[in-house]
Amino acid sequence: MEKVKMNYSTEKVYENIEIENPVYKLTIKGKFNGKPGQFYMLKCWNKEPILSRPISINHIDEEKIVFLYQVVGEGTEILSKLKKAETVEIMGPLGNGFDIDNIKGKVAIVSGGIGTAPMEYVAESLKECKVDLYAGFRDKSYIIDEFKGIVENVNISTETGREGHKGYITDIFKPELYDVVLCCGPEIMMNKVIKLCKDKNVKVYVSMEKHMACGVGACLVCTCKTKNGNKRTCKDGPVFSGEDII
C-alpha cells in the first residue's frame, strides 16, 4: 500500500456543526490526503496538558476534508466551540488504514456509534466491492443518509428501538454472508464481531480506538495486545487483523 506523506498545518474552519447531540461535523477547505481508516491529530487550544485529539477521516475530496467527532471530554468540548474562520492545528494523515486494494468480493462494514464516522470514507473507497452496512446506535442514528448512495444495503439497530432492530447490531449481523468484514466501534462490540467471524472462518479487520498522546508511536500510551506482542495503535494500527487482537 502506497505511503501517504504526513503534514502539519494551521487551517481555518469552514464549518463546525452539531449533527446529533453530542456529535459534530468539522469541515476544512483545501487539498488534503489520507487513506481510509487513517486519522489526524487536531488541536485548537494553548492549555496544557491537553494534548491534540485523534480524529478519524470521515470524508476527503478535492475541495475539503471532513472530521466527525463526539464530545467526550475537555479537548473535544473545546473543538465543538470552534466557529467559521477560526483556526485549528492539524497533523496527519497518521496510522495505517484499511488495505483497500486487497479487499475483494462481498464486504460487510460493521460499526457502532461514532465508529461509523471513518467507515463512510471506507465505503466510498470500496468501488469494486459489494458493500453492506451494519450500524448500531444507542438511540438515534446519524450520517446514515451519506451511506445510502454508496452501499447496497443499510442495516440499523438502536438499543432503545427508536430505529431499526431493537438491540445490538451484532444480533442481526451474519458474517457467513461475506468475504471480508471491516469493523469500528466500541471494544465490546468489536470483540463480538471478531468472535462471530472466527466461528464462521471469515476474515475481519478492526479499527482500534485508544487514548493517544503523540499520534506517531513515540509515547507508547496507545499500545494494544496482539499475538505478536504489544503494538502501537497510532503507528502500527489503528487497523489490525481481527485474528491478531488479544
From TrEMBL:
Q: What does this protein do?
A: Responsible for channeling the electrons from the oxidation of dihydroorotate from the FMN redox center in the PyrD type B subunit to the ultimate electron acceptor NAD(+).
Q: Which domain of life is it from?
A: Bacteria
Origin organism is Clostridium carboxidivorans P7
Describe how the cofactor binds.
Binds 1 [2Fe-2S] cluster per subunit.
Q: InterPro entries attached here?
A: Cyt_c3_hydrogenase_gsu, Dihydroorotate_DH_ele_sf, Dihydroorotate_DH_Fe-S-bd, Dihydroorotate_DHASE_ETsu, FAD-bd_FR_type, FNR_nucleotide-bd, PyrK_electron_transfer, Riboflavin_synthase-like_b-brl
* PANTHER family in alphabetical order: DIHYDROOROTATE DEHYDROGENASE B (NAD(+)), ELECTRON TRANSFER SUBUNIT, DIHYDROOROTATE DEHYDROGENASE B (NAD(+)), ELECTRON TRANSFER SUBUNIT-RELATED
Q: Does the keyword Transport apply?
A: yes
Q: Which family does it belong to?
A: Belongs to the PyrK family.
Keyword tRNA processing included in the entry's annotation = no
Enumerate the UniProt keywords alphabetically: 2Fe-2S, Electron transport, FAD, Flavoprotein, Iron, Iron-sulfur, Metal-binding, Pyrimidine biosynthesis, Transport
Query: Which amino acids does the record list as binding FAD?
Result: 53-56, 68-70, 75-76
Pathway(s) served? Pyrimidine metabolism; UMP biosynthesis via de novo pathway; orotate from (S)-dihydroorotate (NAD(+) route): step 1/1
GO biological process entries: 'de novo' UMP biosynthetic process
Name its co-factor(s). Answer: [2Fe-2S] cluster; FAD
User: What's one Pfam family here?
Assistant: DHODB_Fe-S_bind
- Sequence positions that bind [2Fe-2S] cluster: 214, 219, 222, 234
The FAD-binding FR-type domain covers 6-100
- Name the HAMAP family for this protein: DHODB_Fe_S_bind (MF_01211)
**MF terms (GO), sorted A to Z:** 2 iron, 2 sulfur cluster binding; electron transfer activity; flavin adenine dinucleotide binding; metal ion binding; oxidoreductase activity
Q: What is this protein called?
A: Dihydroorotate dehydrogenase B (NAD(+)), electron transfer subunit
Q: Where is the signal peptide?
A: none
Subunit-level organization: Heterotetramer of 2 PyrK and 2 PyrD type B subunits.
